[in-house]
Design goal:
By secondary structure, the protein is an alpha/beta fold. The protein has a single domain (2-285), classed as Nitrilase/N-carbamoyl-D-aminoacid amidohydrolase, CATH 3.60.110.10. It has helices at 14-30, 62-76, 155-163, 183-204, 262-269, and strands at residues 2-7, 35-37, 79-89, 92-100, 106-111, 137-139, 142-146, 168-172, 176-177, 207-211, 214-218, 226-230, 234-236, 242-245, 252-257.
């Protein structure tokens, strides 16, 4: 399956950023992509860098945004994964990814389940944890296990998606460094990020697609400098092999042809699901085992 990962930066405004995104989607479709994946909260700046109640206004256009990306998927004839700021009710907001079918209808959506709260990543201030569970979304290109950014550190999420029949795992992402971190720390963080997701591919015998943003974004409150998003979007195969990868600084359309039949082949030689000891895992649902 021809897939396009759109690695991009924030272009100073929602309007300008979306224009660049739409051009990339158009180019990807012309190149034969059947599935196009965008990064986390790709429409605008990464607003979670500080806690500001005015930022909730960014979710007011959620319904309009859904209509817009529906039309974009239809216009280009692609299955499109978009990441949006959802206003569900007054005072209730989610970090939500939506999959649009190639005819524009909504195939399904996922609300981010694991919400971080770290310096410059103050997402708990904005997002209510998801309540839709880990359920693959059926599309014309397969059953997609859709997860978002911080979810990628949790093997339980990937495993449940696999056990429910996902054909591949997709992670829209927004993660980066602080410029003041030393080079060793930056390398350790990036290596860990890539390794954990490749491990999900290996453990579950599934393709994994991860799309990150790039570029330096500044703290508009001036409390800290900002985040330099590290890019490195990639796709991995069912044995964790890297199929395609982007660099840490450039916008790009990363094309990859995913072999959707290979999971069956890999699971026959590495039958991890067969050999699971389901009877011995009851304690996994506890926070900590004293």
């Amino acid at each position: 399956m021809k897939t396009a990962l759109i690695q991009q930066k924030f272009h100073g405004s929602k309007k300008e950023t979306i224009e660049h995104t739409c051009e990339a989607i158009k180019e990807a479709a012309k190149a034969g992509a059947k599935l196009v994946v965008l990064g986390e909260l790709h429409q605008d700046r990464y607003f979670c860098m500080n806690e500001d109640t005015d930022n909730f206004n960014l979710a007011e256009d959620y319904e309009k945004d859904v209509i817009f990306w529906s039309g974009t998927a239809h216009k280009n004839g692609v299955v499109l994964v978009a990441s949006l700021f959802e206003k569900r009710a007054a005072g209730l907001y989610h970090n939500t990814a939506v999959i649009f079918e190639k005819d524009g209808h909504i195939a399904g959506k996922y609300r981010k389940m694991h919400i971080p709260d770290d310096p410059a990543f103050y997402e708990k201030f904005y997002f209510t944890p998801g309540d839709l569970g880990f359920n693959p979304i059926r599309t014309s290109v397969g059953k997609i296990g859709l997860l978002i950014c911080w979810d990628q550190w949790y093997p339980e999420a990937a495993r449940i998606m696999a056990l429910k029949g996902a054909d591949l795992l997709i992670y829209p992402t927004a993660i980066g460094w602080f410029d003041e971190d030393d080079e060793g720390e930056k390398k350790r963080q990036l290596d860990a990020w890539i390794t954990i997701q490749r491990a999900h591919a290996v453990a579950n015998g599934l393709n994994v697609v991860s799309v990150n943003r790039v570029g330096k974004e500044f703290d508009n409150k001036g409390v800290m400098d900002g985040i330099r998003f590290w890019g490195n979007s990639f796709a991995a195969g069912a044995q964790g092999e890297i199929l395609a990868s982007a660099n840490e600084k450039d916008e790009c359309i990363l094309h990859v042809d995913l072999d959707m039949k290979r999971s069956e082949e890999v699971r026959r030689i590495w039958p991890f699901l067969r050999d699971r000891r389901c009877d011995a895992y009851m304690q996994i649902s506890r926070r900590f085992i004293d």
